[in-house]
């Protein structure tokens, strides 16, 4: 058995990707790929290092007649699938389709209260000849219809599960050249992603400003209800801008995950993202519930600065609890 085959078999026995092995011996992934494809051979220092990493002798690596392997974990080799460029591109395309369905469903659910607030505002201002009861009835019908359509989008997501299962759930490695292609794609996309993220965050933060301004200087119930619609529409616009960009960024990152060890920084970011996904919608619900109950819009805005400080404190507490 030649050196290239031994490197492949030992690497897979350890359950490592080409990138992981490359990081351990401080070379590029392309170098490991060339060794395994017999395009080049490692120098003597690398062979010594390979022998130390794989816990074998240099004689075993260099002499073709030495073929005896101790493979207690050989079953790992069968579980490692190779993903080529076409499969990786199809994965990204599928994730974008899923993101499109999720975005539509979330936007519809967020905007489902817009008809209710609109009809209540018309009833309070004596327009469209609506009574409060009729306005509430029409608003509830609008909520049910829009939420039902939104749920239908969520249900359609499961048709794409099989197309994304390998990269999302299984152990895999990238075919030669795929890593460099997607690393370049991710690097180029970061500019667009950061721009969309900035716009979305601005919309989320600024969304309550029109409502706060009207409630403090005008105070008319009908106008406040209309400003609630503006708030919901701005939040929906932020979701519409951010969700596809976030899905593509995550898809690129998932493809490259076989070739990058998860750092402590990335783990902290993921934990903070999971907390934010629950925390900020809950804070928005508290703000709207408290404001609608008391109609003290000039006071309830204090939820936001307090909530921001509390979020930072919760992230710090979460990191403290995650320490060994």
Quick recap of the structure?
The chain is mainly alpha-helical and 324 residues long.
Rg measurement, Å: 28 Å
**How many domains, as an integer?**
3
Question: DSSP strand (E) fraction?
Answer: under 5%
Q: Tell me, briefly, the overall form.
A: elongated
Task: State mean pLDDT (0 to 100 scale).
Answer: 79
* Largest sheet descriptor: 2 strands, parallel
Keywords: DNA-binding, Membrane, Transmembrane, Transmembrane helix
Domain HTH cro/C1-type: 7-61
Protein name: Transcriptional regulator
Organism: Thalassotalea insulae
Description:
It is a single chain. The protein has 324 residues and is an all-alpha fold. Helix content is 76%, strand content 2%. The chain has three domains: 3-79, lambda repressor-like DNA-binding domains (434 Repressor (Amino-terminal Domain), Orthogonal Bundle); 81-260, no CATH class; 262-324, no CATH class. Strands 1-2 form a two-stranded parallel sheet. The longest helix is centred in the C-terminal third of the chain and has 35 residues, at 221-255. Mean pLDDT is 79; it is low at 70-78 and 258-263.
Key features of this structure:
434 Repressor (Amino-terminal Domain), single chain, two-stranded parallel ribbon, 2 strands, mainly alpha, 76% helix
Question: How would the blueprint of this fold be written?
Answer:
Blueprint: H1 3-13, H2 18-24, H3 29-36, H4 44-54, H5 58-62, H6 75-79, E1 81-83, H7 85-111, H8 114-124, H9 132-155, H10 161-169, E2 172-174, H11 178-206, H12 209-217, H13 221-255, H14 264-294, H15 297-300, H16 303-322
Parallel strand pairs: 1-2
